[in-house]
Amino acid sequence: MARWLVRIAGTVLVLALAVGQAAAQDGEVLFFAAASLKNVLDAIDAQYQQDTGKHVTVSLAASSTLAKQIENGAPADIFMSADLDWMNYLAQRSLIKADTRKNLVGNELVLIAPKDSTIQITIAPGFDLARLLAGGKLAMADTSAVPAGKYGKAALEKLGVWDKVSGQIAQAENVRAALALVARGEAPLGIVYQTDAAVEPGVKIVANFSADTHPPIIYPIALLAGSKNPDAVGYLGYLESAKALPLFEKQGFTVLK
Asked: Hey, what domains does the chain have and what are their CATH numbers?
C-alpha cells in the first residue's frame, strides 16, 4: 500500500510539473486552486480573458495535494487553499510571498443527499446520522488532510456523532469527488460545501451545519515565492477586485473584508 501511494504521488507530481512547464512556455499564469473553486474560477477566468486578452492555467485539486506539489517543486504562480492550514504549511517553508497573502472568501458546510431522496433531518447534538445512513456510506473528502473532510469531521465530533459513523465514511480525494458519489447515488448522504451543492443538480441540501460546529471556512490566497511570471501580480489583483468579487458572491461564497 505504501509503495502504491508513493507511485500515485509521483504520478501526480509529474502531471503537475508537465502542466506547469506547458503554462510557462505559453507565458500563462499557473494558478493552483482548491477543487471547490472550479465553477467560480471558470466564470472569473472567462471574464479575465475577455478584459485582458490573457489566459490563466488553473490546476484544481485538494488543497493538501496542491500544497504538497508546490513543496515538491511544481512551478505554480498563485495558490488558493480551502483552509488556513495548508497555506500556513507553505508559509512555514517560505514558499509563499507573505506580503501578498489575503483571506479572500468564506463558505458554509452542508449535508447533502441525492436529489430524489426523502431524507429529512435536523442537525443537532447527538442527531442519529447512523440511522439515516441505513447501512450506507457518508461521502466526505479525506478527513485526515483535505479541508472539506477536516471541517466535516470536526463538525461531527462537536455534535457527538463521529464515533458512531466513523466506520461508514466513503473518503474521497477531494470535495468534488465526494459530491459526485452522492450525485450518482453511491452514497445516501455526504458533507460538502454549500457552493458545491449549489452547482450539482444531482443533489439537494438536507441540512446546514452551524458555523459554531467547525473552524471558520476560509480561503486564503497568495503569490508563491518561486513565481517569476510578471502577469501573476496582475491576476492576483484581479481576483481581489470589484470585477471578480461579485462573481464569488454570485456562486455563494462570502467575501471577507
From this structure: 2-106+219-255 (3.40.190.10), 109-213 (3.40.190.10)
